[in-house]
Each structure stands twice: as structure tokens, then as C-alpha cells.
Amino acid sequence: MLDCLEIDSTEPADGCIIWMHGLGAYGKEFAPIVPHMELPTIRFVFPQSLDRPVTINGGVEMPAWFDIRTLEESRMREDQNDIAVSTQLIQEIIEEQIARGIPSWRIVLIGFSQGGAMALHVGLRCPHRLLGIGVLSGYLLNPNLLAVEESEENRETPILFCHGRGDLVVPYKKGRRAYEGTKNHIRSRTWKKYYVGHELCLQEIGDLKEWFHTLFGGTS
Fold first, then answer.
1. 79 has catalytic annotation
2. Catalytic residue among 128, 185, 198, 213
3. In the annotation, is 185 catalytic?
4. Per-residue pLDDT of the chain (220 residues; tens, 9 = 90+)
5. Which single residue of 15, 34, 155, 189 could bond 42 by disulfide (Cβ 3.0 to 4.6 Å)?
6. Which of 67, 79, 82, 167 is labelled catalytic?
7. Confidence (pTM)
8. Which of 82, 113, 121, 137 is catalytic?
9. DSSP letter string over 80-135?
10. Residue 213 bears catalytic tag
11. For domain 4-216, which architecture applies?
């Protein structure tokens, strides 16, 4: 199991948000957002990825969900074994929350940047129905394999895509391609753009709060 920072609900938990960090970052960096979400019955889990050498950063070892070998767009860009390992580790966190009494349909997967790519990747393939998937400044991994790997369980799962118009790390058009690339696989998708770079902004945090409240206010 991955190490996780867990911020439990102030009331008995009836839902969970699993939030993945970006490349070279730490799960705890998003913890200050929790009080602003005003979700007293929701448990927040911030997994910490494994440390691994990252080719585009000179082979320096850092927290990463997968190695990125090149900045060019190619099939060899991301390490597929790393993606498979991280997928399994994130799925184990989902299974743990289910075992602790949170139904899968009350679990949201969300992530920023590389973490957003993983949230989308795992969410589209999860064998259990999830409540929602959030992709913050992220992108779509292995789009050519989605048709054969996707889970029917999450065709109705809402996905929120948020991206900065001035993002120079994960270009805006790459995030937009992820949104367009899921149109034949997911029936409920929302795209929101912000006039910022590779970061969260106050408007985005407000939109996330509204989205979370809409999701968790619903029924099974």
C-alpha cells in the first residue's frame, strides 16, 4: 500500500475523495484545501506516489506516478510498467475504502497534472462504479487502448476537466484532447478553463467545491 495522508470527516464518513498529486510533489500539498470544501461527512485521502528516476528531469529520483522519457509526443513517452504499477496501487486504495464501509459509488478520484492523468486512467478502467472523476491540468494516457480497456461500470460517471489557458507544462490543447477523447466513452463530461498557468486558482477551487457538493448531495 502507498503511504497516504488521511483527513477524516468530522462526522461519520459516508464518502471519500482520493486526490493524487503531480510530478515531483507531495500529497500533503493539497491538504489545506480540505476545510474550504465544507464536506463534514467526506474522508479525504492523499496518496504519496513511489519515488522513481524521471528521465526528463535528468534521471533525478522524485515522487512520480510514472517516468516520462521525452517531452515529444510518442508511444514511448510514458513508462507503461510504471503506469500499471501505479494503477494497481491506486486501485488498492479504492478497495481499502470499500472494505472500510464506503461504497464505490461514494468515492471520487481526482488528481492534478500527472495525478490527474492517473485519476482519469484508473477511473475509466475501475471495475467498480465511482461517483466522479476529476482531472485538474491533466491529460489522457494511452488513448488508443481505451476502447479495449475501459470499464462499462463508469460510462455514467461524471468527469470534470479543469485546465489553465496559459499552462506551459501540460498544454491546454493536450487537456482539451483528453476531454474530446472521452466523448465516446463517458456520457457526462464538463470542461472548465481558467486564465492561469499550471496551477489551481481560487475560481477553480470554488468550482471544485460546487462540484463535490453536487456529487455527494445525490443518491445511489
1. no
2. 198
3. no
4. 899 999 999 999 999 999 999 999 999 999 999 999 999 999 999 999 999 999 999 999 999 999 999 888 877 899 999 999 999 999 999 999 999 999 999 999 999 999 999 999 999 999 999 999 999 999 999 999 999 999 999 999 999 999 999 999 999 999 999 999 999 888 899 999 999 999 999 999 999 999 999 999 954 4
5. 15
6. 167
7. 0.96
8. 113
9. HHHHHHHHHHHHHHHHHHHHTT--GGGEEEEEETHHHHHHHHHHHH-SS--SEEEE
10. no
11. 3-Layer(aba) Sandwich (3.40)
